[in-house]
Amino acid sequence: MRASDALDVLLAPRCAGCGAAGSWFCVRCRDASDPISRRLGALTLVAAGAHEGPLRDAIHRLKYGDEPGLAGELGALIAGRVAGDLARGVRLDCLVRSCSTRAAPGRAATTRPARSRPPPRR
User: Fold this and answer.
1) DSSP 84
2) Does pLDDT of 108 surpass 70?
3) What is the dihedral of CA 25, 31, 32, 34, to 10 degrees?
4) Phi, psi dihedrals of residue 54, rounded to the nearest 5°
């Protein structure tokens, strides 16, 4: 048993989005984060959810709040979206992690789009 597992038994996890006891990111908050898509030329980029509301709170608690229990919950959110796309016959070319840069103090951080190559001709 890992120390984090023992801690979960002693202190029940609370949802990073709404504070409800029982999970790190509850079903209600997970269902509230609708996937978004954007066209970039011939590419369609899809995200598991917009970086706002409960999802933003969960991401911030994972990154800055030292709550590794959220990794499994947020990973499950992404896996569920990918599984749903595959079940509908959507072709996935790749999965890309966001590439963000840190901003200087007082300035907003920027996000650079990931670059991809067109698929090889057959």
Assistant:
1) H
2) no
3) 120
4) -60, -35
Query: How does DSSP assign 18-66, residue by residue?
Result: T--BTSSS-HHHHHHS--EEEEETTEEEEESS-SSHHHHHHHHHHHHS-
Beta bridge partners of 45: 38
Give the model's pLDDT for residue 87: 93
Q: State the pTM of this model.
A: 0.64
Residue carrying structure tokens 């200087």: 104
> Average pLDDT over the chain, rounded to whole?
77
> Is residue 84 packed enough to be buried (19+ CB in 10 Å), middle (13-18) or exposed (0-12)?
exposed
Q: Which two tokens stand for residue 97?
A: 């992690």
28 phi/psi in degrees, rounded to 5? -60, -45
